[in-house]
Amino acid sequence: MKNYLLILVVLFSSITWSQNHKFGKVSKAELEEKFYPLDSSANAAILYTERKTNFEFDKKKGFFIVEKYFVRIKIYNQAGYEKATKKILAYHNTKAKESVFGIKATTFNIENGKIIKTNLQKKDIFQEEENKYYYSYKFTMPYLKPGCVVEWKYTFSTPFFSNLNEVKLQEDIPIKNLNVRIATPEYYNYNAITKGFIQIPMKKDKVNRKVSYTDIVRSDGLGWTPTKSESVRNEFSYDEHIQTIKMSNIPAIKNEPFAGNINNYKSGINYELSYIKPPNEPLKTYATSWEAVVEKIYNNSAFGEQLKKNNHFEQDLQNLLQELNNTNEKIILIYQFVKNKIKWNGYDSFYSDEGVRKSYKEGVGNVADINLNLVAMLQHAGIDANPVLISTIDNGIPLFPTRKGFNYVIARVATPNGHILLDATDKNSGPNILPKRVLNFRGRVVKNNGESEWVELFPKKHSINKTLISAKFNESGFTGTSRKTITNNYLLDYRNAARDKSEESLLEWIDEKTEGVEVINARVSNLDNLEKDAIETIQFETESFYEDIADKTYISPLLYTQMTENPFKSENREFPVFFNKPWASATIINMSIPDIYTIENLPESIRFALPNEMGSFSYSISNQERKIEVISKLIINIPIVSVGHYQDLKEFYKKVITKQNEKIVLIKK
Amino acid sequence: MTLKFTSLLFVLLFFLSIKAQDFSIISLPENLTNNANAIIKYDEYSIDLISQDKMIIRHKAAVTIFNKKADYLAELTLFYDKGSSIKKVYMEFYDATGKRIKKVKKSDFDDYSATGSSTLYSDNRVKHYSHTAISYPYTVYYEYELNWRYTAFIPSWNPINNYNVGVEKSSYSFTYPPSFEIQKIESNFNNYSIQKKTSSGLLKYSISNLEPLKYEAMSQGLSKITPNVKIASNKFHLAGVDGVANNWQEFGKWIYDELLVSRNNLTSETVSKIKKMVKDISDPIERAKIIYEYVQNKTRYINVAVGIGGWQPMLTNDVDRLGYGDCKALTFYTKSLMDIAEVSSFYTVVYAGDYKKDIKKDVVSLQGNHVFLCLPREKDSIWLECTSQKVPFGYKNSFTDDRDVLLISPEGGKIIHTSTNKPKNNLLETTSTYTLKENGDIQGMASINSFGTQYSEHLMKFEGLSPDDLDKRMKNHFSFTNNLSFSKIEVANNKKEQRFEENITFSAENYGVINPDGSLIFNLNALNRISHIPNRERNRQTSFEISRGFKDVDVYNINIPEDYEMSQLPKPIKITSLFGIYSLSVEKKSDTSLKYKRSLLIHKGNYKKDLYEDYRSFRKKIKKLENIKIVITKI
């Protein structure tokens, strides 16, 4: 089968490469194609995409990056129209500016066997200020019809060498042919790091290039020679490193439940400026290793220096700790103090914005303002605390040494009993219970001398929802009480949803999420007491979860805690299942049955597991004098389930749902 | 002169009174804080219509915010463009003790383009400021002044604009040149004590001490139950043009003459192309169908708002050339083509959305948020939505049905009411034959036809998807049936019959549950379980509304394996209530087959709050019956 596929792919590539990939040369065959041959589900496909990056030299400005883009997209149906709108972002600051020019675009249709071209006109391209630093060009293609092909090309140029754009090798629609050429002069060294599951065939080359330019040189009059200007021809040569990538038939990447950040799995190449070495000048390093990246961050005044400031909290810290000796208590006190003292303004950063002092005084700050204050206070109290640089889920997985690979900072405390991770931006988070945005594989802990090492971020402890229900069945339904204990990261989510609600709206919220029962009364204890697990107590009644059929009655044993829907619906999956924490969900039900019934049958007890003890499910049921006890426990022991185990996981869920759906059978006497 | 002086004095006095105001939370009245996320301490709108093309809007407000759910009230978002400028804007923040913690100047505001996700480009811009709450409660005070060159719509007074927010005081004052005619409409003033003052060139309203209102499921919406005032002037200005209109006829004529007629510049080439398309067709309706289909195939919705284009349609030739436009552009383009085809049609302004909102008849002003096209007929005019490529000709869209709209013709404007479907025509018909196997799996096929509002729901869900996405959507649609897989899914948008058609062949593993004794229990309704129950309201205050009724009819032929015995089948059930009719019957056809029939009709209506629990219990009974099961036992 695999070989057969390979042959198919090879065949396809040889056919497709015979197409004309010049701008404006769209073929009838391309226009007449009704669906994408390798993926009939595609609403649109990129028939060809080209990216050519060069460094050009200007005698005044020196080198700058010039990128030429060209794309040809086939649109199969109306749902694909959204691919015909383009936005190009460009950055500027007070010193320099990126520019976009030479936008040309055409829509191709076929009418009565004739190719009709509709060009995008200049006046239909809009320029817009996005914010202080970015402006954009936007356009949408004219005259779209199902089956049409659109093309556009443009040139982007930037004087910012660290802004060499990512090479995107995969999109949410298929790419038929791709051609990328990145040429960099020897003076500019980039780290090219790849991501995704697709093999990238990269060809490397080196050529010698010459640049020549004329300078006007003025020679001053000496004695009786007059002042004159003369043009001088300058020339220099350098090695140019060339990377070329030609690929065909790249499949689309599609979203799935528990995906995390899907951009992590899209194939592509990121470029990080490593060093610049102009001729006759010393080498200037940008980032070459994680150690170097971290050191650079540490040496920035918005990071390392902030950790040394302590005057502003000195007095508060003394008042807070007084004579306290217990280290653990100190940690918690300081942590809670910072949470209350400085509120998060919603901005991520590992650099303090206006300084730890000012944010402390004003009570507002970005992530660094808050967590660097936290680290500084802990250190000042004699506790072994350090900042941890992190990339949030939205920022993706840091694959290679770059400052962009971080966008967030938290704190780590070393204790004899292990490490404690702290993030004071979320008032409901706790020691080792971090907000979801932070739970992204690993972070880098920064020591006091700027040295650094990796640290795992996923929680070790299971997050648990455990529900104890005591229910009474009678002829018209159930009445009962339930007591649900919520722990760790589940508790963080719960508190974020439930705290700050008035009593009335809390009740309504519980009503809504407890489907199938009428909530008579509900109470949540320890909602505000962060040192304890929250407990949600409900008094309920319901006419659901049983069925009278003929002389028998069938009861769904788990009542409203039964899992009814399998989240894993896709037959196959190309990336891991990202639970981001180990977790468990348990229900223990005690159900009393009135003596007008005899209990005819109970489901069987069972236990089954995922391979390698990644997870397990156990279900046990017993009856003692008309009191039925049901225990259902679902446990997942790892934060991430690999692609290879997707089928196991899907099947596991299916078995859980089937088991939980089994009925208790009663007969009326 | 004196008038000017006194108003200046008034402003000064007012200013002083603000400075002396207490922003600490101690001064808050308790009856307003119960269940409140915030209290509006005062909210003062003053609008001065200086001349036909000049209006000054001043707004001052102080709001005490108790929790994060009301943080949005401490955000300020002001739009501006070439015809409207922000003269002044200023904010202050106070802590619970009334101590000022922050001042925000105009230069502290973020400034960005107002282009939203559905807009390609707009030259409207926004100034925006949002505050990070350090602690609760806190108080925001803000004031701003806007200068508008357009006066065709005047901001209205809506003192109760938010749920769970108490209002200590809200006031609204409007001044205008006494030579102008002013129209006003005061809605829902009963049960509220509102101070009102009118004199020549002045209108003032104020209200105080309003307890917070809570959102209740199926409620009619604040604008239909709380007081509000809407004002219009007979002399106005828009898009660089002055206008005078004392009634809708004049207003509509002004729109037609000033904003529409000059926007048609179709080339003679297009004109003859269209003429050729409809050449031999005598029936105007048939000609209209050809034009509508042509537009649907040619265009798509893209919003571009440039210059006065925010008010005017794009040029018809640009739409013709580009194949896109916003609702104004596409409607006016369609209308222009209809003109060529000699089909009479009217550009029509509406408040669009599933929530029905009328153009308010009694104030002649620029209203609405959408335009579409009307083909007038003696009875039952035809309505065309020009921004959709999918809906059929003349489909009664819940987006624009059952409400007052403004028709615009060369002769002038006219308010008329759009038609709507009867509940029984919002129909979902499901017929299926499925077979239960000994291992509990089922397999079968079904055909599902939807009409009326249910047509558009299914159209939005299932039309134009790739096979993969369609498969996923279908699985989610039938999410109560697990382990579902489809070997065939065919969907068709039958525009001619205004019917959406789905044909599926499906199977589901473990659908029936095997009991410990080997018998099988299964839910008869495998495909369409109506299980929604509206939220419980423990102390309902407002009436409730079913804004559109519907009907679901399901007929299933169910086969069971041989050598099994069916349990006693449920008796036929019919529940008739004020809100609708539910009926169910199960009939044994043979030893191995039975017929399940179920129908539900929900009426449209407005009901007193006391009936809400009755409605819930009706829906609860339905939910229970939708889960009716039978058991089959091996003989």
Write structural notes for this entry:
- The complex is a heterodimer of chains A (669) and B (635).
- The radius of gyration of chain A is 32 Å and the shape is globular.
- In chain A, a hairpin with a 5-residue loop joins strand 21 (442-446) and strand 22.
- Chain A has 669 residues and is of the alpha+beta class.
- Chain A folds into three domains: 19-187 and 240-254, Immunoglobulin-like; 291-456, C8orf32 fold (Roll), CATH 3.10.620.30; 463-668, Sandwich (Jelly Rolls).
- In chain A, helix 6 (327-341) packs antiparallel against helix 8 (367-380) and helix 7 (356-362) packs across helix 8.
- The model of chain B is unreliable at 1-20 (pLDDT under 50).
- Chain B has an eight-stranded mixed sheet with strand order 5-4-9-2-1-10-13-12, with no helix packed on it. In chain B, strands 27-28-26-25-32-36-35-34 form an eight-stranded mixed sheet. Chain B has a five-stranded antiparallel sheet with strand order 22-21-20-23-24.
- The longest helix of chain B is centred in the N-terminal third of the chain and has 18 residues, at 2-19.
- At the A-B interface, strand 6, strand 7, strand 16, helix 10 and helix 11 of A face strand 6, helix 10, strand 29, helix 11 and strand 38 of B.
CA-CA gap between termini of chain A: 61 Å
Share of residues in strands of chain B: 35-45%
Overall geometry of chain B comes to globular
Based on Cα principal axes, name the global outline of chain A: globular
- Distance between the terminal alpha carbons of chain B, to the nearest Å? 102 Å
Question: Biggest sheet of chain B: strands, sense, closure?
Answer: 8 strands, mixed
Proportion in helices of chain A = 10-25%
CATH topology of the largest domain in chain A, by name, is: Jelly Rolls
The poorly predicted ranges of chain B are 1-20
Main sheet strand line-up of chain A: 5-4-8-2-1-10-13-12
* Tally of DSSP β-strands of chain B: 38
What name does CATH use for the topology of the largest domain in chain B? Immunoglobulin-like
Number of domains of chain B: 3
